[in-house]
Amino acid sequence: MPQFTVEEIERAFLKRKNEQHATELRAILQTDLDIIGLSRKEMTDILHDFEPHLPATEEEFIWLNLLQDLWENSFFEARLFALELMFAKSDLIDAHLWGMLDHWSNGVDNWALADWLGHLRAIAIHKAESLVTRMTPWLTSSDPWRRRSTIVSLIYIDPNTLEKHLLLEPHEMFAFIEPVI
To answer: Where does residue 162 fall: left (phi above 0), alpha (psi -120 to 50 degrees), or beta otherwise?
Structure first.
């Protein structure tokens, strides 16, 4: 199957543009990113439309380029789409992507993207528990979104069942997040 481009995804977004919902999302998210105003259902529909055209999981270079291009897009929905693609294709997430997720955290200015990044980091931590220690300095970061994302990273959501699990024991969890409190 032919693969798609970020421009095609953007066109699919723009076909469903909703100014009223964009205004509502702008108020909720308080982001500097452009917002098209897609609903949750519209995002899911677009994901399903493009799913047959996604590269094979083994084509890591193509995936990384696609995800990076989506993240560099000026639309909130494009960044969210990149994160949702990664969650849907969680086999792609491992310790090797930690640096990319960390880099993306630098440009986050809203709770939705911070939380999604946290969910993806939790998948990586679930696969390589030692990664949790890399987040310790983030707990005292001056960036509130990085701190929030770090805490979200401690709750693993299974991409297949959506069941939630703590990645640390409760006493470890408290000791880990204490600097934030």
So the answer is: left
